[in-house]
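task queued by scheduler; priority normal; single chain, no ligands, no partner chains; default sampling; output format set to structure tokens
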Amino acid sequence: MSQNTPANKTLKVGLVQQSVANNNKMQNWEKSAQRARELAKDGCECILLQELHSTLYFCQTEDVTQFDLAEPIPGDATAFFGALAKELNIVLVTSLFEKRATGLYHNTAVVFDRSDDIAGIYRKMHIPDDPGFYEKFYFTPGDLGFEPIQTSVGKLGVLVCWDQWYPEAARLMAMKGAEILFYPTAIGWDPNDDIEEQQRQQGAWETIQRSHAVANSVPVIVANRTGFEASPNEDDAGIQFWGHSFIVGPQGEILSMASDNQEQTLSAELDMTRSEHIKRIWPYFRDRRIDDYGDLTKRWRD
């Protein structure tokens, strides 16, 4: 373990799954804070909040007025959540719409380590551009790389939503020593899709993230939002966020999973010695053929 003592081999982690009804940031922050307090009271030392938890998911349309929702770092949001991490003596992983400069914005995770000081940030690297998820209009791709953030509970590999579909991102975090992978997320169904297609999509989403745990022998924690959010464009169907936040162990085993339509908190005890044990008997890193992986840096192999 990075900074845990030998006696501290278990870590209780938690996450918050909630709906968002408006753009009242303080109301949404207080709602997240109350859930975090419940988890901390139950013994959680590390807590994950969902993607862009301060506001509605504004990327359903391209609208320049939505840039008014962005926050500087440091700013009011980091002051609020830093104070919360200090109050509760927890490691807290948050997700903000960062205003880096006028005309330059990022989808950014901010980590606090039992203090109001920022322990580290991660800027979302993979930016989608799909119907209802027009994120390329709002977010500049991250420029900090895949670097774990050192905290008192270990090295945290924090990635964001669309990053979760890319095994390269999880692998690079693990190669840098990440001991847990975190995915704050905002993903849901198009209400026009039939139930079979919705189930296929949600199943694929769960499977790919559990596979990151298996392939890298690390626990994975995923916090998704829940609830329906209408599109500002009345001709669009809106998004039914599918919840299903979950925590899995280093072999992809489900330790805790939320429902699709309820606001919930989840927690689980992680045995932080298991990753070491599993890597000894399933030595994926030993057997990687790095001498023949050069084409992975190409967009497509012709």
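post-processing summary
- The longest helix spans residues 195-216.
- Confidence is low (pLDDT under 50) at residues 1-7.
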